[in-house]
UniProtKB/TrEMBL annotation:
Protein name, per record: Alpha/beta fold hydrolase
Keyword Zinc belongs to the record: no
Alphabetized PANTHER family for the sequence: HYDROLASE, PUTATIVE (AFU_ORTHOLOGUE AFUA_2G14860)-RELATED, MONOACYLGLYCEROL LIPASE
Organism: Pedobacter puniceum
Taxonomic path: Bacteria, Pseudomonadati, Bacteroidota, Sphingobacteriia, Sphingobacteriales
Gene3D superfamilies for this protein: alpha/beta hydrolase (3.40.50.1820)
UniProt-recorded Gene Ontology molecular function terms: hydrolase activity
This protein's UniProt keywords: Hydrolase
Length: 254
């Protein structure tokens, strides 16, 4: 399904539905389509908003997690959002954590799935064979429990991205920034409710990462999805949405 991308004040974003704001933050290689099932499930009850993070547009020297968190802050202020529920996958979760740490006054709750911020086993800091389609296909398949989730369309998209010199330089800079920016000493400051929805077979941010987030975040709950890798909302969308429904009901009743 195609969603309309709005452009305003230098921001590009998708916005569907009415109600409380569900702000979705995509990962480093994540496309907006990764969230399609979440949008379809929740747009009747929530205002589902996905800003396009300017991963490829930042000056190289400021390409990092903190810059993306500042971008999210500017976007939230521009849209005059309050009591936002932030949902982030992978790098998007890390950006959400930095944003919430700096500006908790805008956020009602946080949902993390496969989030970086503590540890991640990413592309290993380089793309030694980025011109080799099969190598990239293998790397994309590694994201999921079931390799069939890595459709040809998805692999083609990643292959095209990593073979664009401007983009790949920024991807590597962003990945290094995420690895350097470890949040273990900051997580105790986050007092608002946090739900962790994790693939039990995630090889990029493995289950022990979810356990550590759960231990370090004072007001967190951890939910597991079996037979699922690093992007639960793509690989097991029905179960992911079911858990998210439960989480949102709990948040609304608090």
């Amino acid at each position: 399904m195609e969603f309309t991308i709005k452009e305003e004040n230098g921001f590009k974003y998708i916005e569907e539905g009415e109600g409380e704001v569900l702000l979705l933050l995509h990962g480093l290689m994540g496309a907006l389509s990764n969230w399609e099932e979440v949008i379809l499930e929740f747009k009747d009850r929530y205002r589902v908003v996905i800003p396009m993070l300017p991963i490829y547009d930042l000056p190289l020297l400021t390409t990092g997690v903190k810059s993306l968190a500042k971008f999210v802050h500017k976007f939230v202020k521009f849209k005059k959002f309050q009591n936002v529920i932030v949902l982030g996958n992978s790098l998007g979760g890390h950006v959400g954590l930095v944003f919430v740490t700096s500006h908790p006054e805008f956020v009602k709750a946080l949902v993390l799935t496969g989030s970086s911020g503590l540890y991640e086993n990413s592309f290993g800091g380089s793309f030694p064979k980025r011109e080799n389609y099969d190598f990239i296909k293998e790397k994309v398949e590694f994201t999921f429990y079931d390799p069939a989730t890595a459709t040809k369309e998805l692999v083609d998209e990643v292959f095209e991205t990593v073979n664009d010199r401007n983009k790949v330089i920024r991807i590597l800079a962003m990945a290094k920034s995420a690895i350097r920016h470890n949040m273990s000493k900051d997580l105790h400051k986050i007092k608002l409710p946090v739900a962790l929805i994790w693939g039990r077979n995630d090889r990029i941010t493995p289950p022990e990462v979810a356990d550590e987030f759960h231990n370090l975040l004072p007001n967190s709950e951890l939910y597991w999805i079996d037979k699922c890798g690093h992007a639960p909302m793509m690989e097991q969308p029905a179960e992911f949405n079911q858990i998210l429904n439960k989480v949102l009901e709990k948040i609304d009743n608090q």
